């Protein structure tokens, strides 16, 4: 990457794929349109001085879906299912039926989607040849067995994460997926459905930080979601949700593989602990793992210690270190005071730069529906999805269990 | 920690050791005096709404030193020596002489300190009974042998970091220190001489984030210090500087032990790489390590990839996760646009809070000189300083060497 330094802020990113990068900013009246919420801040910082922070915003009107599919839902034990449904609908999916064995969850679902048929059984859905895709957020340890039945019925599958909770399940899923050539997708939403994460992927691909060396994810979560009821029993039981690295960490393993573009990877080391939830002895409230792949290294910390004062469920961060710069995402909050989420910071050879990603398009739903129709892998790479699962399952299995001085 | 919520911002930290915390803010006209540089920002964020960010500033006039000592300098191969000297002088030290074998470095030193005697040899200094302390930033692998001679001559020692470059050296240093009862201090300046890091220590001790669970340090560094000459040959030679984890990482191992208050600790795993400096095959430009101790866990990433656009040598971060909240330090830069360094963010049960630490007192020099006079360990715990060295030496020795796809 050769630097091209001019007085025009629009030139400051240098010559690397400038067209690609600026295309991402299309629609702004200038590359540095400043959101109103940041005006007071920006007014205090001249662009000319070091430490100043040019702002960019990248609105992209989402293109309409190109394809239509029919899908159904089986298993609605986690509210993530609503996000999965929304993504598939945005992509051109028509939801035709659902099944869940829990009457209370079913009633809530029906209230939300009164036009969707409540099936009498799982088999009723699996045996309906018009259904192309099954979406599920069933209890985690039931996701792989269900997905196997789905694939064996000739349908594609979109599971909530974790999509697989043991290495034995993973081996079976891989075998059946290879036999049936169906899609076993896992909704790693903290990348696929986060606008700042999508933007980071574009920037990395465009070479904005050179060659990626490492990713660090810090992923705190909140035990009690404000406004939601108490967590169900399975939430506290490692044998059901797979452990904190398997569950929460699967998002981050996906990001590590994606941003480092690793096609092979392994776990260097991992740790778990139950620091402060001794009333739930089978729960893990802290975990971390060190990863390495053929495209770079990775580190992930997950925990259930988001303090109430944050105002949202977690201060999720992603740091992508490259040979020519680095990116930081503040995905859901910015404790420095910017409102909302989707904050991207890019520091390169020339300056720090802030990109508000609130208007970045989320392509996953559209890509995924298109993949179902065209038998492609544009929304999610099948091997990468499985490798992310493999990493967290290995990390979970070999994790050193920490206990600290009380 | 029980919450005490009132309308007074000064009350919002809750009831934990409020006296201790507010004592740290003494001298501000209110707990929330806002630095002028932040006014435009603060004006845009009402304290009442979520995501708002009350600002505090904690000016403390440094108390005068209570003690006087005489000290000399042996070995000035790293410019860190000037920071070490300044700390000891602030604490009451009088620099009387120096020795270095390099004529060019000696000439530069003499220009800076014309009143300080240039000794003819190391022995001249070691045999001067009026000298109580030797300060050194000699080439890293010579620091321990020198420190051993210093202690054997009945003097205390303040080494630049890394203070020790092999486990064999460490064993010898520990033995001689135990025999002589001299002080073998290592200047972990990224905690001891960073105002935000000092403030974080106060907050942690006061219980501001509950019990500490983990620390994460991200510590990028810059190969070419603007305005400085080229790096000397030893900088590129792992056998001389000890490797990236030993060298840069010793700062972070110290912080892990200090903030988790761990008295025993070990390395879970570590990795090193030479990603982009193949013209220096014995150099390491990336490293990371996962640590665990009896007080908490730790993760450290070190690298030499600070991009020029940052405007300073490194975007050093520290995240301290506690059971009741967390602290983030942006030690030397804030890519979100605040000027300078020493930015501390605290999120607890009640809100995110920003503390500008620019005026926080640096007590190390004063404490250290007092320790020399009173044979105490207030500035640095001897066992902790050695344990930090032990961790990085083990991490370095057992590090997995990574190679990525070119």
Descriptive overview:
- The structure is a homodimer of 406-residue chains.
- In chain A, the strands form two sheets. Chain A has a ten-stranded mixed sheet, with helices on one face. A six-stranded parallel sheet of chain A has the order 4-3-2-5-6-7, sandwiched between helices.
- Chain A contains 14 helices and 16 strands.
- In chain A, helix 6 links the parallel strand 5 and strand 6.
- The first copy, chain A, is an alpha/beta fold and 406 residues long.
- The first copy, chain A, has a domain at 69-187: 3-Layer(aba) Sandwich (Rossmann fold), CATH 3.40.50.
- The longest helix of chain A is centred in the C-terminal third of the chain and has 17 residues, at 382-398.
- Mean pLDDT of chain A is 87; it is low at 1-52.
- The radius of gyration of chain A is 22 Å and the shape is globular.
- Chains A and B meet through helix 2, strand 8, strand 9, strand 10 and strand 11 of A and helix 2, strand 8, strand 9, strand 10 and strand 11 of B.
């Amino acid at each position: 990457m050769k630097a091209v330094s001019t007085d025009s802020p629009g030139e400051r990113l240098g010559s690397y794929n400038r067209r690609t990068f600026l295309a991402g900013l299309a629609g702004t009246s200038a590359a540095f349109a400043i959101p109103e919420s940041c005006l007071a801040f920006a007014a205090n910082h001249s662009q000319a001085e070091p430490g100043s922070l040019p702002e960019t915003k990248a609105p992209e009107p989402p293109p309409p879906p190109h394809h239509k599919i029919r899908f159904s839902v089986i298993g609605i034990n986690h509210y993530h299912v609503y996000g999965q449904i929304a993504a598939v609908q945005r992509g051109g999916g028509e939801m035709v039926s659902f099944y869940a064995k829990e009457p209370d969850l079913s009633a809530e679902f029906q209230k939300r989607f009164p036009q969707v048929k409540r099936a009498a059984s799982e088999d009723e859905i699996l045996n309906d040849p018009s259904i192309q895709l099954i979406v599920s957020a069933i209890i985690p340890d039931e996701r792989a067995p269900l997905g196997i039945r789905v694939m064996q019925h000739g349908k594609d599958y979109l599971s909530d994460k974790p999509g697989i909770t043991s290495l034995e399940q993973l081996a079976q899923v891989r075998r059946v997926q290879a036999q049936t050539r169906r899609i076993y997708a896992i909704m790693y939403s903290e990348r696929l459905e986060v606008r700042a994460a999508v933007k980071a992927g574009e920037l990395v691909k465009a070479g904005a930080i050179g060659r990626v060396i490492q990713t660090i994810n810090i992923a705190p979560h909140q035990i009690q979601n404000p406004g939601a009821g108490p967590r169900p029993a399975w939430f506290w039981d490692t044998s059901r949700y797979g452990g904190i690295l398997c569950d929460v960490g699967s998002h981050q393993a996906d990001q590590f593989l994606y941003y480092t573009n690793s096609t092979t990877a392994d776990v260097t080391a991992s740790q778990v602990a139950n620091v402060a939830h001794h009333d739930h002895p089978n729960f893990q409230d802290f975990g971390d793992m060190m990863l390495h792949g053929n495209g770079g290294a990775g580190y992930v910390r997950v925990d259930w210690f988001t303090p109430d004062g944050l105002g949202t469920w977690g201060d999720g961060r992603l740091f992508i270190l490259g040979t020519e710069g680095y990116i930081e995402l503040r995905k859901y909050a910015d404790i420095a005071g910017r409102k909302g989420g989707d904050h991207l910071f890019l520091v390169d050879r020339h300056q720090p730069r802030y990109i508000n990603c609130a208007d970045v398009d989320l392509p996953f739903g559209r890509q995924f529906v298109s993949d179902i129709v065209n038998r492609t892998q544009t929304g999610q790479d099948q091997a990468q999805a499985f490798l992310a699962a493999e990493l967290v399952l290995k990390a979970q299995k070999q994790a050193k269990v920490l206990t600290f001085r009380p």
